[in-house]
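Lecture notes, continued. The same structure-token format from the folding unit now serves as the input rather than the output. Read the line below as a description of shape only.
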């Protein structure tokens, strides 16, 4: 689905303290992969707790286009009847991925080693994002590519009759690039090896193993992760229970810390070590966050977060932590606006190629609301504790995390905060507004300036 047409401004303002127990929707990374890997297995995969957001539904449609049957059941779970690796049908229409970077990049990997043609399009945000990081290794594996200037969407690919296995060192910290190469390697004979100098989320490796692939992870002498995948396995269907998304949990987590008197519990949050950088950082800043009821579900750590309003202090966030909290910097910057002193965030170059240039979008949003900050090429410094903040309108640039982060700012700021488009939130967290209203927050629709 595209958000290129009707923006829906939303305004948040100070309400009562947040209280209550909530669950956030299922993890986006695991949801995409559940549908993809289910489609590549032979037989029926069941998925409980699938994130029903626009990005994930776009992936479902892409898998249907190559022959998978995906259905919602009466109990809310999904079934995926796979067609099997190597047997994908050629899509009869253009595949529209809307706003979904993960969806399109991983799907290009899957289709790229199959001898079918496919054309991918996206919304204005996705059409600006670099696809060369995935298309280049696919070219090395034998895929033909025609893409717009700078390897942007729209792009068409046709896989070779037989893909070549590849050894590939991922040049930037990106789980999407790592995953796309591994997924292409699934349909190439022999071993595909991915070397990952900086570790990123490992859902592809873990879940492929669960689906029966022969995949191993080791460290080389330089301490880099080396992932070896044997091509052309027979993938076996799985029963998957998707835990709550830690990136979505970041919004109520930060809101409860900065709204005085708040005390909330967020249940069933994924605590995979490659995803918990925000929790670590907020605890270092003085946040009262207790992880309770830690347990393992389907090979992943999960737990409940008890969060109480806290006096935060500014810190330096190590650059090495960036991959484990890459989508959480916008909301961390909001927490930093309420901390005493400066919060320094280095190593943010990847933020420039997300749904928006997130480094610039966050800095402009903070400035519009009277929060002092300094943006450099790859760092952000936020000075917390300014009085009388809020009152601004934030340009979201079709970026769901910018919209949600600044609505959280408005819940704790002296003056209300407006985001120019709340419709984009459906990308990852369609129940955001009702969930926050249930905790006591105030969010209201505003007439668009153009109306
Ligand atoms: O693999 C994934 O599921 C994701 C990887 C990250 O992107 P990059 O790999 O581009 O950093 C992240 O920002 C995105 O929301 C989800
Ligand atoms: C970067 C994100 O997603 P994607 O790359 O899948 O569009 C995100 O959800 O913050």
């Amino acid at each position: 689905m595209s958000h290129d047409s009707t923006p829906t401004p939303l305004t948040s303002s100070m309400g009562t303290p947040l209280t209550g127990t909530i669950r956030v929707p299922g993890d986006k990374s695991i949801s995409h992969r559940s549908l993809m890997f289910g489609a590549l297995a032979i037989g029926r995969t069941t998925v409980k707790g699938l994130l029903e957001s626009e990005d994930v539904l776009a992936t479902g449609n892409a898998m249907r286009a190559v022959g998978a049957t995906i259905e919602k059941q009466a109990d809310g779970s999904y079934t995926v009847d796979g067609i099997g690796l190597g047997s994908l049908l050629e899509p009869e229409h253009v595949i529209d991925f809307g706003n979904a970077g993960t969806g399109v990049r991983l799907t290009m990997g899957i289709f790229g080693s199959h001898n079918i043609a496919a054309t991918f399009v996206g919304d204005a945000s996705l059409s600006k994002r670099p696809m060369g990081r995935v298309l280049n290794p696919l070219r090395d594996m034998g895929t033909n590519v025609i893409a717009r200037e700078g390897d942007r969407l729209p792009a068409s690919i046709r896989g070779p009759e037989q893909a070549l296995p590849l050894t590939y060192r991922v040049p930037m910290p990106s789980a999407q690039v790592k995953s796309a190469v591994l997924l292409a390697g699934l349909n190439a004979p022999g071993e595909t090896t991915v070397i990952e100098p900086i570790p990123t989320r490992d859902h592809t490796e873990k879940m492929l193993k669960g689906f029966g692939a022969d995949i191993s992870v080791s460290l080389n002498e330089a301490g880099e992760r080396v992932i070896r995948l044997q091509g052309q396995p027979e993938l076996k269907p799985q029963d998957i229970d998707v835990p709550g998304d830690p990136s979505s949990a970041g919004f109520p987590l930060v809101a409860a810390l900065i709204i005085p008197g708040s005390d909330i519990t967020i249940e069933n949050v994924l605590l995979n070590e490659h995803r918990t950088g925000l929790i670590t950082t907020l605890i270092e800043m003085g946040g009262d966050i207790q992880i309770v009821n830690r347990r393992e579900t389907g090979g992943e750590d999960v737990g409940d977060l008890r969060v109480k309003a806290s006096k935060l202090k500014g810190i330096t966030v190590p650059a090495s932590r960036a991959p484990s909290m890459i989508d959480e910097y916008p909301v961390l910057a909001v927490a930093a606006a309420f901390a005493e002193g400066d919060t320094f965030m280095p190593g943010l170059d990847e933020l420039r190629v997300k749904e928006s240039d997130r480094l610039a979008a966050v800095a402009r949003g903070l400035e519009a609301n009277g929060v002092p900050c300094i943006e450099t090429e790859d760092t952000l410094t936020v000075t917390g504790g300014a009085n009388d903040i809020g009152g601004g309108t934030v340009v979201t640039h079709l970026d769901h995390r910018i919209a949600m982060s600044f609505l959280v700012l408005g819940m704790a700021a002296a003056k209300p905060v407006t985001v120019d488009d709340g419709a984009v939130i459906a990308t990852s967290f369609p129940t955001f507004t009702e969930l926050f209203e249930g905790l006591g927050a105030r969010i209201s629709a505003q007439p668009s300036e153009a109306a």
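Point for the exam: Residues 28-241 form a domain with the UDP-n-acetylglucosamine1-carboxyvinyl-transferase; Chain fold (CATH 3.65.10.10).
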